[in-house]
Q: What sequence folds into this?
């Protein structure tokens, strides 16, 4: 193998990337766009749910009850209506996601069981689920406080027996969605960029006919392959570092585990992505076909890897598919190291599977690539 | 006499199809040799075997004294090749393409500077060094392609339909350059569909259906066939060996 030939290819490849707008956009704009899109737009946290109130009691008691909802921060009871039709209309038009209907005799709740209705718009299950559970919780807490007070007036109190459940949320105590999404995004960005750019670069030579000139030169297929891949390893890895830096310093998602382990395994994963990109390029004749192939591969990895939807809930067949996606294991590794701060021996399984997948894919890709050159 | 190409019973089969059938030929060095034949006659397959890109099914051959099977690496280093379709990098400049191919052929820095200057002078590419190749016109692209094929100072150059789709003036200039280089010792193999170009070559060979039909100087071949020119010979051969419908 000749080092100077290798350098000539790398240099040529970088000039081509520099002059090719799509490649530049994919390598610089795409990681930033994905990071900020997922970082800001995708949030599954639900609070301040807009709520309408039909208060037929209009007493101090009913106002205290409504305030309890506001103070929970889960609800914004900003719409006051005078009849049930108006409330239904607000839910229909989507102005509010919940409606609280307080009966005229509400203030009697201190002495007798009083029924209050909370209507919820169930079309978006995520919001509805939060509205339902927190709505029940607010009312129960309000009701229990009252029971205690009434009993105390009669010189009684609730006996101190039963179960007192203490909770402790580990790793992400604030249940911050960003803390969960951003580490996964690191893997996704690196995967997408490396796969698309690699597939593009390898097909380009075939599509433009420049391969015809190369095969009559003393260049060896292994030199051509390595020379063409090194730039994309560098770009994919630089993007990984860029997104990592932004997630630490901009999104304030700290790395709880070993950064050097993270950097090492990041490199490991690039090999997987590179091999997938090469495989796509061996099947495609044009850059358009390569793009289509890349999206066919990328879409299932986004949905099935556990990046958005938890894998535990998937039916066994779908889950089996997700088992053969390298990103699945890299996401476990990323979240393990960044969020949980766990060490390599706990992640050993994932590391072994991902590394073996990487080498197997690379071997197949190299064999197919060389066969095509000869 | 020294021979640039020596082929003996060279055969190439792809499955059931015999693309080249027992081709034997000896081409003297320092001459222009035109390989003629209709599309699909086995010209390209022969060229690919001569370049060492594909291996023959049987038979053997040497190019510049190197075995086409065992020493294909040495052949690739010593020959230049220019394909009918422009296959340099359109998104690179003239200079960047030359730099790339100089490095690929292993020229050191000093040689590179020297050879690039010679080529730029020879092809009159001054003031175009920093132009993006994609913006060059057809004639200039062709000059650059020839220039890049000559960068490493090969002893033998293969030109696969080099003048198809090029205007007459550029074609004239191109042939003048080729002739000048041959006078300095370069051996040339050219395939072409232009009979007036074949007429200017030192040797001509006709291929049809994988067979070599004739080999000799243009005047010999015209005389042997009692024809007026190579075009008549070409058509006569095609008719004798199965006619137009076999094309």
A:
């Amino acid at each position: 193998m000749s080092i100077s030939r290798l350098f000539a290819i790398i240099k040529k490849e970088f000039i081509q990337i520099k002059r090719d707008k799509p490649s530049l956009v994919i390598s610089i704009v795409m990681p930033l766009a994905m990071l900020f899109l997922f970082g800001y737009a995708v949030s599954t946290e639900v609070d301040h749910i807009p709520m309408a109130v039909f208060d037929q009691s209009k007493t101090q008691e009913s106002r205290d009850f409504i305030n309890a909802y506001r103070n929970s921060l889960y609800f914004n009871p900003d719409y006051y209506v005078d009849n049930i039709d108006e409330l239904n209309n607000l839910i229909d038009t989507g102005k509010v996601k919940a409606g609280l209907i307080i009966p005229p005799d509400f203030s009697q709740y201190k002495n007798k069981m009083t029924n209050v209705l909370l209507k919820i718009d169930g079309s978006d299950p995520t919001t509805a689920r939060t509205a339902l559970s927190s709505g029940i919780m607010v009312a129960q807490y309000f009701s229990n406080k009252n029971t205690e007070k009434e009993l105390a007036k009669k010189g009684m109190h609730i006996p101190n027996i039963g179960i007192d459940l203490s909770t402790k949320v580990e790793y992400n105590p604030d249940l911050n969605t960003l803390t969960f999404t951003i580490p996964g995004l690191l893997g996704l960005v690196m995967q997408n960029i490396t796969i698309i750019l690699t597939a593009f670069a390898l097909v380009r030579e075939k599509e433009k006919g420049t391969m015809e000139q190369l095969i009559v030169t003393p260049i060896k297929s292994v030199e051509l392959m390595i020379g063409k891949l090194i730039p994309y390893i560098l770009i994919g890895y630089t993007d990984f570092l860029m997104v990592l830096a932004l997630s630490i310093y901009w999104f304030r998602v700290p790395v709880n585990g070993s950064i050097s382990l993270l950097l090492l395994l990041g490199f490991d994963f690039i090999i997987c992505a590179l091999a997938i990109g090469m495989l796509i390029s061996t099947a495609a004749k044009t850059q358009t076909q390569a793009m289509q192939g890349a999206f066919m591969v990328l879409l299932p990895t986004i949905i099935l890897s556990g990046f958005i939807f938890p894998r535990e809930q998937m039916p066994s067949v779908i889950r089996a598919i997700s088992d053969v996606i390298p990103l699945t294991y890299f996401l476990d590794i990323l979240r393990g190291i960044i969020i949980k701060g766990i060490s390599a021996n706990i992640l050993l399984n994932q590391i072994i599977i991902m590394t073996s997948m990487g080498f197997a894919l690379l071997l197949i890709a190299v064999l197919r690539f060389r066969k095509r050159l000869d | 006499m020294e021979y640039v190409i020596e082929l003996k019973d060279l055969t190439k089969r792809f499955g059931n199809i015999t693309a080249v059938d027992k081709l034997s030929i000896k081409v003297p060095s320092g001459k222009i040799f035109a390989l003629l034949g209709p599309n699909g006659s086995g010209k390209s397959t022969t060229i690919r075997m001569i370049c060492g890109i594909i291996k023959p099914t049987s038979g053997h051959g040497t190019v510049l004294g190197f075995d086409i099977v065992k020493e294909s690496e040495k052949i690739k280093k010593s020959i230049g090749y220019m394909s009918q379709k422009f296959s340099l990098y359109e998104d690179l400049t003239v200079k960047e393409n030359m730099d790339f191919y100089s490095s690929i052929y292993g020229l050191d820095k000093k040689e590179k500077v020297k050879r690039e200057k010679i080529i730029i002078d020879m092809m009159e590419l001054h003031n175009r060094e920093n132009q993006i190749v994609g913006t060059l016109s057809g004639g200039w692209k062709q000059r650059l392609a020839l220039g890049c094929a000559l960068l490493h100072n090969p002893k033998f150059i293969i030109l696969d339909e080099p003048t198809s789709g090029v205007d007459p003036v550029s074609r004239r200039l191109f042939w003048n350059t080729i002739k000048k280089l041959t006078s300095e010792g370069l051996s040339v193999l050219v395939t072409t569909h232009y009979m007036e170009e074949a007429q200017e070559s030192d040797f001509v060979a006709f291929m049809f259906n994988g067979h070599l039909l004739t080999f000799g100087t243009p005047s010999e071949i015209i005389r042997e066939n009692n024809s007026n020119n190579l075009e008549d010979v070409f058509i006569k051969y095609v008719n004798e060996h199965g006619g137009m419908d076999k094309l």
